[in-house]
């Protein structure tokens, strides 16, 4: 709506009628600094009070020359529809949701690819300690190159930062190796079914070691988690105690990693991507001497020749792929945590496990009994219920 308004005839009324009225005995006068303008009969200009006004332009207000006093000051305004106002703010929210959705889809896809190549490598080259070391080394090298070439901004750290990161790195190293050992002995789906019981360990450790209490629904959610994992374990066709214990140790280690991380990183201004990069580098320093002690170069060399003779040159690609994708999926998960709440992250982690379990069963043709599948479904349902009543 366009209207012409004379400064000397601006009228304000107080009426219950949503339309401004022109009738008023004392119109507001323009201050003395503006030139006097001839008084004309106010024109009817109905303007809705229920919609905001957006002034597009005011021409030469208060700067008219004497010879231009007869000119009118034109004030162009239009009524903004509510839908236009909402549309102005909606793109940012929509863009954020799209960004998070891309993070989640990338996180799950990278995790699925990592688990597939990791299992392929471990089937042909059963040395989980070296495999774990290569994963951390590859990620550390990628981030060092990114920092050196300014692709990513290097974090500003100090000695105190590395001190607080050390216990997190120890727990991360144990959890990483234990999970890899588990997948070298049992099916990928079985490892992830057992690892879906991590929330139960989180509650138990927090309750009995840290003295924290939780709402009753949280404790009730542990029943399907523990029951489902137990049912899946006893009905697993290719059950292996080493594989089972590896997944259990990984659960405990990652619980302590999360606890140490929450306690030690408060107030640290390091992005999720750089935080995981530093974590990988410190874990690599911790893991390397143990990998040499447990397995050693002689075993690695002999196994490498055997794998190359059986698989061919593509085995090298498998090793490179599992190392690269391990770092990428973890990096994206930490970047996701920068954008979302711990609760949303926990739900996303649950859905990620479902995608890994289903895809690994399809790709590796893992035999699954109906009772085993039921146990997995119950455990994952319990994990989802748990995530609804906690903040991560």
TrEMBL record:
Stretch forming the signal peptide: none
Gene Ontology CC: chloroplast membrane
Localisation: Plastid, Chloroplast membrane
Lineage of origin: Eukaryota, Viridiplantae, Streptophyta, Embryophyta, Tracheophyta
Pfam family, one: TPT
Regions that span the bilayer: 100-117, 129-148, 216-235, 241-260, 272-291, 311-329
Protein name: Glucose-6-phosphate/phosphate translocator 1, chloroplastic-like
GO molecular function (one): phosphoglycerate transmembrane transporter activity
Every Sugar phosphate transporter domain range: 99-387
Principal place of residence: plastid
Membrane topology per record: Multi-pass membrane protein
NCBIfam families: tpt
Swiss-Prot/TrEMBL keywords: Chloroplast, Membrane, Plastid, Transit peptide, Transmembrane, Transmembrane helix, Transport
């Amino acid at each position: 709506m366009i209207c012409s308004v004379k400064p000397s005839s601006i009228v304000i009324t107080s009426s219950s009628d949503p339309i401004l009225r022109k009738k008023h005995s004392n119109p507001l006068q323009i201050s003395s600094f503006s030139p006097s303008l001839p008084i004309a009969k106010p024109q009817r200009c109905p303007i809705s009070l229920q919609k905001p006004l957006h002034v597009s332009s005011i021409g030469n207000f208060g700067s008219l020359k004497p010879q231009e006093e007869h000119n009118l000051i034109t004030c162009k305004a239009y009524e903004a529809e509510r839908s236009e106002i909402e549309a102005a703010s909606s793109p940012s929210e929509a863009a954020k949701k799209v960004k998070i959705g891309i993070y989640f889809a990338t996180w799950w896809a990278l995790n699925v690819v990592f688990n597939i190549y990791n299992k392929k490598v471990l089937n042909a080259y059963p040395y989980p300690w070296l495999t774990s070391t290569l994963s951390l080394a590859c990620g550390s090298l990628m981030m060092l190159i990114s920092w050196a070439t300014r692709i990513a901004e290097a974090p500003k750290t100090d000695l105190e930062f590395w001190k607080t990161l050390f216990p997190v790195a120890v727990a991360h190293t144990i959890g990483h190796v234990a999970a890899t050992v588990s997948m070298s002995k049992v099916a990928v789906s079985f490892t992830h079914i057992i690892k879906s019981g991590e929330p139960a360990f989180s509650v138990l450790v927090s309750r009995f070691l840290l003295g924290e209490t939780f709402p009753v629904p949280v404790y009730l959610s542990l029943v399907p988690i523990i029951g489902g994992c137990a049912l899946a374990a006893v009905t697993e066709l290719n059950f292996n105690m080493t594989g089972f214990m590896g997944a259990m140790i990984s659960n405990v280690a990652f619980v302590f990693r999360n606890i140490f991380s929450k306690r030690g990183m408060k107030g640290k201004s390091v992005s999720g991507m750089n935080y995981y990069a530093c974590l990988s580098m410190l874990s690599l320093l911790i893991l390397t001497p143990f990998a040499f002690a447990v397995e050693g170069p002689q075993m690695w060399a002999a196994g490498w020749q055997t794998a190359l003779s059986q698989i061919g040159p593509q085995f090298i690609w498998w090793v490179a792929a599992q190392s690269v994708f391990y770092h990428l999926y973890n990096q994206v998960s930490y970047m996701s945590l920068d954008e979302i709440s711990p609760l949303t992250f926990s739900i996303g982690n649950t859905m990620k496990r479902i995608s890994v379990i289903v895809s690994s069963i399809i790709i590796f043709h893992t035999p699954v009994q109906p009772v085993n599948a039921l146990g997995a479904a119950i455990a994952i349902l319990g994990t989802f219920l748990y995530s609804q009543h906690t903040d991560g």
